[in-house]
Design goal:
Elements lengths: L1 H27 L4 H21 L13 H5 L2 H13 L5 H20 L5 H30 L5 H30 L5 H25 L1 H4 L13 H5 L15 H8 L2 H10 L13 H9 L3 H10 L5 H18 L8 H7 L5 H12 L3 H8 L1
Helix pairs in contact: 1-2, 1-8, 2-4, 4-6, 4-7, 6-7, 7-8
């Protein structure tokens, strides 16, 4: 009884969430259609199952008795749900192609006849493993190429959502395969076991959505953030020395160690626009002028605590300034070439090279991605 009631309540919550997504779309014109369909289908199936199990609804044929056919819609839904969240665009043709196998199964079922349950289970096993590969591969490839576009908090959300999508999918997959191949129950009992054994993960997922409403309203992965601190995102400075302290620097290390935390914090907060006009040889002097630290202390910090060489650090600061300008709408009025000059890059080629090195995309692609 408790499991039936849990399925009913989870189904009801998922339907409410799908309605909230629709209302948000009316307000903002922004929607992840695949996430909406995933929540709606799962919510409707569980809600109807709960009604049938509690004997509130008698006719279970529309969804419950054909649940295995509906399961074929979920693997591509999980894939496109994640792709849409992280900003991977796809064509209508590719989308239709991914759902064509599900449509084929539906046509076969209604016009030819039922497929023997163990054969259906075997097809579902191969089909789902293929989509696990696509889902994991898409997430890894995209995050490797675009990780710098997101803030650290957004990256955590992307990874969390990837794990949740995998958990929901694998949860349904494992129990469905188990009850088809390793359980001698009837088809009706298989359906009951599948719904009841997967309800816990859905309860946890709904709780996760409750504490992360930005996912429901498709706002978590908004990449344009006017208050974003890119210096922190690039993790330029390390509190522990990255190299073994050389003997000639040991005395200076003893002096700096007392105030190293404050020194590195001040370097982290240094505004890029204050030093980007300097050349590599005058960089230390320029930083010393603005932070009021001895040059020897700054040389030591860059040598032992900076993850980049002096010239690479300067170019990274120029890039950070460029990113800040882009996020504040600079390219709405000026060209990318003008942006490179504004940030004191030696040439257009140099700007593009450093931009792609750190961001994984060109300046024009980055502009498109954050809009």
């Amino acid at each position: 009884m408790l499991l039936y009631l849990s399925n009913l309540l989870i189904g009801f919550c998922l339907i409410l969430i799908s309605l909230a997504i629709l209302l948000n779309y009316v307000r903002t014109k922004r929607i992840n259609i695949f996430f909406f369909l995933l929540i709606l289908f799962a919510g409707f199936a569980r809600f109807q199952y709960g009604l049938v199990s509690l004997e509130i609804l008698q006719d279970s044929k529309p969804v419950v008795l054909r649940v295995f056919i509906l399961l074929f819609a979920f693997p591509p839904l999980y894939l496109f749900c994640l792709k849409t969240f992280i900003g991977v665009k796809t064509t209508y043709t590719k989308t239709l192609l991914h759902f064509s196998f599900f449509l084929l199964i539906v046509v076969y079922r209604f016009y030819i006849g039922a497929i023997e349950i163990k054969l259906l289970g075997l097809i579902f096993f191969v089909y789902t493993c293929f989509y696990y590969y696509l889902l994991i591969n898409s997430a890894i490839k995209y995050l490797r190429a675009h990780h710098s576009i997101y803030t650290q908090q957004q990256l955590i959300k992307v990874k969390q959502l990837t794990i949740w999508i995998l958990a929901l999918s694998i949860n349904n997959f494992i129990f469905t395969i188990y009850f088809i191949f390793f359980n001698s129950s009837s088809k009706q009992e298989v359906i009951h076991n599948m719904f009841n054994s997967t309800v816990i993960v859905w309860i946890l997922f709904v709780s996760y959505l409750f504490f992360n409403p930005g996912i429901v309203f498709n706002e978590v992965f908004k990449k344009k953030d006017l208050n974003r601190n890119f210096s922190k995102d690039f993790n330029i400075w390390n509190h522990k020395a990255l190299l073994k302290i050389e003997p000639q620097d040991s005395a200076l290390d003893t002096i700096i160690r007392k105030n190293s935390t404050q020194l590195l914090e001040d370097l982290q907060q240094l505004k890029p626009e204050l030093i980007i006009s300097a050349n590599s040889t005058k960089l230390i002097a320029e930083i010393a002028k603005h932070l009021n630290y001895p040059k020897s202390h700054l040389k030591f910090a860059i040598k032992y605590h900076c993850r980049f060489s002096q010239s690479d650090y300067l170019n990274l600061m120029r890039l950070i300034h460029a990113l800040t300008l882009i996020n504040n709408g600079y390219l709405e009025n000026y060209t990318i070439e003008t942006l490179g000059e504004q940030c004191h890059f030696n040439s257009r080629t140099s700007f593009y090279r450093h931009f792609k090195r750190h961001m994984g995309v060109s300046p024009s692609q980055y502009k498109t991605l954050i809009e």
